[in-house]
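Internal tracking record. Fields below are filled automatically when a chain is submitted to the structure queue. Please do not edit lines marked as system-generated. If the sequence contains nonstandard residues, flag them in the REMARKS field before resubmitting.
Queue: standard
Priority: normal
Entity type: single polypeptide chain
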Amino acid sequence: VPGDTDGDTTYVYAQTTGAKSLFEFDTLPYEPKTVFGIQHRIAARSTVGKTMRSVIKSDDTESSGSTETLTNAYAYYDHVLQDDPDVVGPWTKSTIDVIQAGIEEMS
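SYSTEM-GENERATED OUTPUT FOLLOWS
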């Protein structure tokens, strides 16, 4: 989602280590000629120093980003995958159309 965060108007949170929130997305409106990768961008913060990581799920295979320590101020955290972790090959429209992405609380 481009632009700034909406502050604390909308958000997800977890109080349990290991809890995941995964989300589905609209399908691509066109067939791309080449997909060089996908990027999952999270805007996150924590008032108590929690840690989290990005999760991208393709079919039954999950790929996790780096564990990040959140601060009180919102910051962006990016997780980039050049290849589809489920097929260990290039992304296609059909594989992008069914991915889920979200966050996992680490502590």
